[in-house]
Amino acid sequence: MQPIQAVAWSDDGDGVRILDQRLLPEREVYRVLRSVDEVCEAINTLAVRGAPAIGIVAAMALALSVPAAAGENAAVTLADADGRLRGTRPTAVNLARALDRMMKVGLPLRRDVDRMRRTLRDEATRILEEDRAMCRRIGEHGASLIADGARVLTHCNTGALATGGIGTALAAVYVAVESGKRVEVYADETRPLLQGSRLTAWELQRAGIPVTVLADGAAASLLRDGDVDLCLVGADRIATNGDVANKVGTYPLAIAACRHSVPFYVAAPTSTFDPSTARGDDILIEQRSPDELRRLLGAQTAPVNVPVYNPAFDVTPAELISAIVSDRGVHRPPYDFSEPA
């Protein structure tokens, strides 16, 4: 079976090839994006999603944003593309980190457009390759927390679909299985867009790993009944004190895990650690469209004009987290991520 590549350069090198995750699990469709507008639309509509993957696709889009004939307008074109890409998903720090790297290498070459274009492409490729290696290291460190026969409860999607490699939290599961361990996964549906049931279940079934889908509201009962050995989730931003922003629904899962003495682990690349954010209360939480709750899979599920509270993420306090796994190792409390990654 071919490994999943959620984000890659197109075969002709003139576009970004993505697996359109809006169509899973019904259809596996790949699209080639050839403009910043197309990439912004793909990020906003979750055709491509997951903090690492968003950073990679944005870096690639920036590399494609400056035409060969840009001339003296190269810097303006690059800055405009950067601003549009940066505004698509404000919570995930990987996006800003990737764009900062691209601008740092690109802007000094504003008077040499050809060299700027080559340098931007090389840097975007480097970001992709670094993410692949980083995912493997996260998996190796995280697998040490998974015993043979473990039952793992996860939330949202943290696998190959969310990254340039094998994933973050799910990377630990993949590496554990590769080493011969038997692992069973419970996947929260992850309301309202069902990244758990649509994406995690599809990805794990494809890999031959046993997976059971449950409604988000059923997780606490599963934990109470003793059917879970550990919770393992991802992160979109980690504050210096260890507070974690992740897909909405993570916080109540952490509360339930704490209540029933089940270890709660977070797995994320060091690019997700944000030294500029002291605590979770300082993290800007993206509010999504009300229609994501008013309508589901084309059906009206709430009155048309009813007010909607639809945050994309919530913040889990550090005191509820047993350990944070990164490509550097397993970090135990008290957390201190004040140094740059």
Explain what you see.
The structure is a single chain. The chain is an alpha/beta fold and 341 residues long. Helix 6 (169-178) links the parallel strand 4 (150-154) and strand 5. It has a seven-stranded mixed β-sheet with strand order 6-5-4-7-10-14-15, sandwiched between helices. Helices cover 36% and strands 16% of the residues. It folds into two domains: 7-136, translation initiation factor eif-2b, domain 1 (Four Helix Bundle (Hemerythrin (Met), subunit A)); 146-331, Rossmann fold. The chain is built from ten helices and 15 strands.
- Give the number of helices: 10
CATH class of the largest domain: Alpha Beta
Instruction: Tally the beta strands.
Output: 15
Q: Indicate the structural class.
A: alpha/beta
CATH topology of the largest domain: Rossmann fold
Overall spatial form: globular
What's the Cα radius of gyration?
Answer: 20 Å
Beta fraction: 15-25%
Architecture (CATH level 2) name of the largest domain: 3-Layer(aba) Sandwich
Multimerization status = single chain
Reported for the largest beta sheet, the result is: 7 strands, mixed
Helix content: 25-40%
Unreliably modeled segments: none
Q: Write the element-wise H/E pattern from the N-terminal end onward.
A: EEEHHHHHEHEHEHEEEHEHEEEEE
Question: Widest sheet: strand order?
Answer: 6-5-4-7-10-14-15
- Our measurement of the CA-to-CA distance between the termini, rounded to an integer number of angstroms, reads 34 Å
CATH superfamily of the largest domain: Translation initiation factor eif-2b, domain 2
Instruction: Return the average pLDDT rounded to an integer.
Output: 94
Please indicate the count of domains.
2
